[in-house]
Prior knowledge:
The complex is a heterodimer of chains A (about 325) and B (about 280).
Chain A: E1 4-13, E2 16-26, E3 31-35, H1 42-50, E4 57-62, E5 65-66, E6 77-80, H2 92-102, H3 107-120, H4 136-148, E7 154-158, H5 166-183, E8 186-191, H6 194-200, E9 203-208, E10 211-216, H7 218-223, H8 228-233, E11 240-243, H9 245-249, E12 254-257, E13 262-265, E14 271-280, E15 284-290, E16 298-303, E17 313-318, E18 324-326
Parallel strand pairs in A: 3-8, 3-9, 6-7, 7-8
Antiparallel strand pairs in A: 1-2, 1-4, 4-5, 9-10, 11-12, 12-18, 13-17, 14-15, 14-17, 15-16
Chain B: H1 7-34, H2 39-42, H3 57-65, H4 68-99, H5 105-114, H6 124-134, H7 140-164, H8 168-176, H9 181-192, H10 194-210, H11 213-217, H12 226-234, H13 241-270
Amino acid sequence: MGNITLNQVTKSFGDVQVIPPLDLEINEGEFVVFVGPSGCGKSTLLRLIAGLEDVTSGNITIDGREATEVPPAKRGLAMVFQSYALYPHMSVRKNIAFPLKMAGMPQDQIDAKVNNAASVLNLADYIDRRPGQLSGGQRQRVAIGRAIVREPAAFLFDEPLSNLDASLRVNMRLEISELHNTLKTTMIYVTHDQVEAMTMADKIVVLQAGNIEQVGSPLDLYHSPQNTFVAGFIGSPNMNLFTGSEAQKHGAKTIGIRPEHVQVSKTEGMWKGRVGVAEHLGSDTFIHVHDTGLAEMVTVRISGDMQVKHNDTIYLSPDMEKMHKFDDNDQRI
Amino acid sequence: MARAITTKQKVSWTILAWAFGLLMFFPIMWTFLTSFKTEGAAIADPPVWFFFDWTLENYTAVQERSNYPKALMNSIIIAVGSTILGIIIAVPAAWAMAFVPGKRTKDVLMWMLSTKMLPAVGVLYPLVLLAKWLGVIDSRILLIVVLMLINLPIIVWMLYTYFKEIPGEILEAARMDGASLKSEIIHVLTPMAIPGIASTILLNIILAWNEAFWTILLTTVNAAPLTAFIASFSAPEGLFYAKLSAASMMAVAPILIMGWFSQKQLVRGLTFGAVK
């Protein structure tokens, strides 16, 4: 269970088409991440799958059944919202029990399932509290608990970690990944954070202005981005993209090289430059190199052991094997 | 930072505030005092303030001459009935306007409010004819419906404002959790809007209780509420100020007491959402 197919789906708000015709296949048990900048239509796409928005044209099937006109309550999907969207007037127990109560499940079965979910998610101590008395991470767990008790065909996550602080976000990321390993249920996860996408996904869908730019595994996208948008979006720090004469030398309109694929030397290399800002992370250092003769600043990842200072002169040599080339239409050559 | 205030400023502002408060309260206080005077003392010139022979004779007289319990019962039934009916109609209406607004939602809301600007007397004639034709003149059900219609714009507007404060995502979560529209409104929306709904109910009971134009014009005997009860003392016996005052006090006392006990809820509801 948990096969979702989108066939020529479009969505317009008034005259504005936010999703041009789009096809997408989500397989059973996959962890699919929709990633893209703000306003790229990723949340809208998720809401179309959830049924919270109506498609303008095209159709959606869930497990082979036509679902385009099916109301959200009947699609068998569970959703975790960015704001958690817990019911503030209900205790944690009642929040988690709500979907089961709506399904008309007998009370003893509801109790058993709620207690089980609460212990899995470490919520047993807070079960009689109201959401207002919980921390952000606890609220997020309640929202997840409310989703898992239903045993849905698929989970939909709409930027669920955006409201958490950085360290908690990393923990919750792990917890969600572990949950996926345990439940093996299809999960669709929306985020603007490409690190979340890379670390969690089986399959990443990169969106821009409602268009799917590329679909693939995290390493596919990293190693062979199909166009300059994906090249620039996936990977942290961003890939260095150069246009102009340097690109023409390689027979391309644009060339790209990742910061980790540039050799740095203090004595010799292809491009000579001056160190601008150096960001020391401990294990790595990101240096931003100016005055290389290229139009763009170059970002380079070096080992944290190497000592560089502001205004040092250094030499850069890109690893030609790992260079990405793009044509006039920004497509991969 | 707290502002610096001199004692002199504090004293003068306090006196001013008290003076203003007493001015506002004076008519009610005067009615209260008059209701315990003899008819002679009530029209004495110069007026007597506190030093007169306090008497309960007006209250006894009023009760002997008219049927206070019946008028009280009518007022309660009409005020509560019209409010409940209004809430039943307004909750779904406000839900629709707040959560699935159409192109014309704002216009509809403004139009509803604009009906409050219409002079009531403008629809008096058609309404009386209609009521006569239906044979419901001087019935409680007519007043319940008329007062409900009069207050409906306010009920819808108040509920709309409260519902707007409720995050739409919570209702969407309910939908994802398998709630039907009915369950969504009963189990999620209404409990979250309880403070708002409560203050709407209280305010509308007060408005319906005090409504005098329609309640006096559309009733004679059977459905006459307290407003008509007071009016019956003012019209033919205009000079009997003490009895009129006693009748007024008896009419306003129940709602004053209710308002007193519920003022906390009222204030909370009226400022709902203003401070998070």
